Amino acid sequence: MAPRSRSAPAPAAARGRRRAPPPPPSAPLLPGPGGRPHPRRGAAARRRALAERPSGELEEEAAAGAPLAEGGVRLKREAEGWQADRLANGAGPSRAAPGFAGAAAPALGPSCSWEWQPHHKSSVDLWAAVQQEARENSEREPVLASYLYSTILAHSSLERALAFILANKLESKTLLGTQLMDLMHDAFTGDCDIATAVRADIMATFDRDPACEQYSTCMLYFKGFQAIQAHRVANCLWRNGRKALALGLQSRVSQVLHVDIHPAATLGQGIMMDHATGVVIGETAEVGDNVSILHHVTLGGSGTEKGTRRHPKIGNGVLLGAGVCVLGPLDVGVASKVGAGSVVLDDVPDHSVAVGVPAKIMAQKLKSDVTPAEDMDQTRSYTGLTFDI
Q1: Which end is more exposed in the chain, N or C (fewer Cβ atoms within 10 Å of the end residue's Cβ)?
Q2: pTM of this prediction?
Q3: How far apart are CA 172 and CA 28, in angstroms?
Q4: How confident is the model at residue 106 (pLDDT cuts 50, 70, 90)?
Q5: Eight-state DSSP code of residue 27
Q6: Is 315 exposed, middle or buried (0-12, 13-18, 19+ CB in 10 A)?
Q7: 8-state DSSP, 362
Q8: Other C-beta atoms within 10 Å of 37: how many?
Q9: Helix 223-239 crosses helix 192-208 at what angle (to 10 degrees)?
Q10: Chain centre distance of CA 179
Q11: Distances (CA, A) of 266 to 203, 233, 298, 299, 351
Q12: Does residue 95 surpass a pLDDT of 90?
């Protein structure tokens, strides 16, 4: 007699409850191959599509409550403000985009900061998707049923499940898992910025890493994602004066996950840390939104003076290839990328490509509508012998 497959029971709160169907999108997604919708298309391409729509049409749809149109109106207003700031600071006008009446295109920036896209799931839908994936995987692989129940299905929220996962990863004989879980859950639920960043990091990983086929995979198995969320807790502790505990948590993350991020370092939203082994980020480093970081990247300091900036500042939308070292209090500009194995010792301008030891700036700049962290292209733009410096 064939053994019966075991499936994890659904939590009591979830049984008998029907989920309302998601509302239809206010506008179709950009077409993919064969004319089909392409939900994982880069955000820069979606911003270009919004830029080409007339302002009046977007405002009418936004007034009717269409979320995609509301995002388009917000982008255009942000771009106009950015353009005004450039002119006020003597930077001169930038390239206009269709439908913008002379304002800067959203694809240029203003800053490549994290923005929720139409295909991104809401908090409720994301948690429902994670639970559904866990149920389906439990049925397919009964060996994992107990693990998936304890890590996902037994919990009432994404925050609680993530706190449980991290606590079980990082606990030790002297750092109890129950204490860690309470600590992390308090941080996730007590700081709305952290909760938002967690979801943005999940979306960024799912969008940019083709190996991430499920949202739950990111939470359960990707140590780069786990290291970032543990750092967010440590940074929260650091900002609230609990420096000893923050450093203890940092040490444990470094020991278990092989990622060393000082609790005082600041990370934006929508960060993807792929593979993650050997990543080091120093005390005064700043990492913007929408940044993609490969393994063995070092954001290192220069000098010994305390109370001053010693580490790099990484702009929004930057791609740092495997083994990149960025050393000292320098800036890597918005939407730039640094080739694998490069050592950066000088500032990198916006929309630039840096490669080499020491890194040099390629003369050919990236197109202004390209966000390297999103397209994850690590081979093109690095070849050639023409440099600016």
Answers
A1: N
A2: 0.72
A3: 50
A4: very low
A5: S
A6: buried
A7: B
A8: 13
A9: 160
A10: 27
A11: 19, 12, 15, 12, 22
A12: no
Helices and strands in the chain, H and E counts = 12, 15
Give mean pLDDT, residues 175-184: 94
Quick one: average pLDDT of 160-174? Answer: 95
For the record, the structure tokens of 149 come out as 């129940």
Question: Is 383's pLDDT higher than 70?
Answer: no
CA angle centred on 331, ends 330 and 336, rounded to 5°: 140
* pLDDT digits 0-9 by tens, 231-261: 999 999 999 999 999 999 999 999 999 999 9
According to DSSP, residue 19 is labeled P
* Short-list 320, 317, 361, 13, CA closest to 157: 13
Q: What is the mean predicted confidence (pLDDT) over 111-133?
A: 90
On whether the CB atoms of residues 338 and 321 are closer than 8 A, the answer is yes
Strands (E), 184-330: 260-261, 266-267, 272-273, 280-281, 286-287, 292-293, 298-300, 313-314, 319-320, 325-327
Task: Please check whether residue 342 is in contact with residue 321, taking contact to mean a CB–CB distance below 8 angstroms.
Answer: yes
Walk me through the domains of the chain, giving residue ranges and CATH numbers.
41-108 (no CATH), 120-258 (1.10.3130.10), 265-389 (2.160.10.10)
